[in-house]
Amino acid sequence: xxxxxxxxxxxxxxxxxxxxxxxxxxxxxxxxxxxxxxxxxxxxxxxxxxxxxxxxxxxxxxxxxxxxxxxxxxxxxxxxxxxxxxxxxx
Length: 90
Hints:
The chain is an alpha+beta fold and 90 residues long. Helix content is 27%, strand content 28%. It has 2 helices and 5 strands; from the N terminus they run βααββββ. The chain has helices at 16-23, 28-43, and strands at 12-14, 49-50, 61-65, 70-76, 82-89. It has a 5-stranded mixed sheet with strand order 1-5-4-3-2. A hairpin with a 5-residue loop joins β4 (70-76) and β5 (82-89).
């Protein structure tokens, strides 16, 4: 019997500014909070709310994890890659 796989997750990439933010994370709690948010976004890239502004091209979105109290700003490319722009603690 063939194994059933779940839906394919989106690939996560970081902008240069997000990568710099990630380099500065040292707390295990912050790493856990970010991991949790990125898993949610990778499973469903449309989960975040669109931010108001320019609707041309890729639209900036935000996902807020109320449990971990973090926010991830990102956009989704045409190939369904999620590009993280910023990670914010609320």
